[in-house]
Structures are given as structure tokens and as C-alpha cells.
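Last lecture ended with a question: if I hand you only a sequence, what can you say about the shape of the protein? Today we answer it with a concrete record. The protein is Prohibitin family protein. Below, first the input exactly as provided, then the predicted structure, then a couple of comments.
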Amino acid sequence: MEKLPKIALPAIIATIVLVVILAKSAVTIDSGEAGVLFKTFGEGVVTSEPPMAEGFHIVAPWNKVYVYEVRQQELFEKMKVLSSNGLEIQIDASAWYEPVYKDLGNLHQSLGQNYLQRVIQPAIRSAARSVVGRYTPEQLYSSKRDAIQDEIYEETKKILEKQYVQLNEVLVRDVTLPNTIKDAIERKLKQEQESLEYEFRLVTAAKEAEKVIIEAEGKAESNRILSASLTDKILQDKGIDATMKLAESPNSKVIVIGSGDSGLPIILGNQ
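The predicted structure:
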């Protein structure tokens, strides 16, 4: 086997070294991620420049790149907190969050990659304890679930305001009370509902009775006015009118026999 030329060996070595350097220097940022550059012989964490975007990057082999997920993420928390009267309540909640993209370098410098455990979890737990402590179990069970959700979100957001983290939403998925308290509340609500239904029936019955009384009084007044206006002469005239109409009917065979009271005829027919 022939010996390699003297220039070939250094070229091969240089190529190998270059490949190793490139392999150590190449950084690929995946979709939904961003990188924070750390300059070992420079300023350390780079905060004066935007984060490294998605794609392929070449950095000096003595520098480091810390990759962060910058998409919205979800934290699911089961928390045991106390109500206003000291009863233990369990809340299942979710928080949607993401790092502030332009401040990724500051986030890395001040909190690091475990910022979720350092600030977000303590913030949402503190806010949940504060908010739930304002309400009774009855309020939490029936009417205030949406209210505590909004209040936990606002208080958590206030805590995270200067922590380079963006809180998008807090969702209270479930509020669990002790079984004894839950049963007592349900009985109370059922009794209140039954009481309301009973009161409604009483009001409806009273209105119906009032309506009947008014109708009866109106009818009585109408009869009184009618009776006062019906003189013997008017009754006699109406009787004559009715007799004439019966006599003119083609279906009536009229026989007049004498006369009735007040001089009115008596009419007999086949109808």
C-alpha cells in the first residue's frame, strides 16, 4: 500500500476536527421553541438580543444554548384550601401559560428552565387560598364558581406580572366539598326550592280566588242594574216581541188559547 502524500494527512485531520467542531456547534431549534444563548467568554446570558428562533444555528462550541418551549402550556393543579368558615375544600384548576418571548433571556437569567415550579405553581396556589377564603362552602357549591375562577386568574396574573411569564387563562374544573357538607347544602337547597314552589302555589291560588270574587261581584252588580231597569211595561213589550217572532216562524204552528199573565197570549205549537 502506497503511503499517503504528506499534505493529505493534515487535511484529513483538519477535516475531522472541523466536522467535530461543527457537530458540537450546530443547534436545531424545533417548532414551538426558542433558544437562549449563553456566551461563556462574554456577557453570559444574552438578554440584549431576541431569542434564537426556530431552525438551524451555528454557535461557537464554547457557548451554550438553552431551549425553551414558547407555545401555550397547561398546568393542572389539585389544591386543598380553606373556606371562610375554615372547612377544607378541594379545587381542581388548570392554568394556561407561556413565557414572554421577548423576555426569554431575562426569564432564563432570573428563574431558569424550572420557572413553572418556582413561580407559577406557588402563585396560583397562593391566589386560590386567598380567593376561596372569602367564600362559604354554600357559595362555592352553588353560585360563585365563575366568580372565584375570575378572581384566581386576576390575582395570579398580578403575581406573575414581573416574572416574564404570561398567564392566559385559569379554569376551575371542579370544587369538591366534604360529603357531609355537600349533603347538608343539597338538603337546604331542596327545602328552599320546595318553599318557593309552595309560595308560588299560594300566590296563584290567591289570585285565582280574587279573580272569581271580582267576576262574581261584577255579575251581581250587572244583575242588580238589570233588575232595577226592568219595569212591568218593558217586560210586557219584550214578551210581545218574542211572541210575534214565534208566530212568524215557519216551523211553528201557533194556537192561541186565552191569555196569560199580564195580558200576554199563551202559544202552543208542535215544537
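Comments.
1. The beta strands are 26-29, 33-39, 44-45, 55-58, 64-69, 73-82, 88-99, 165-176, 255-256, 267-268.
2. The mean pLDDT is 79.
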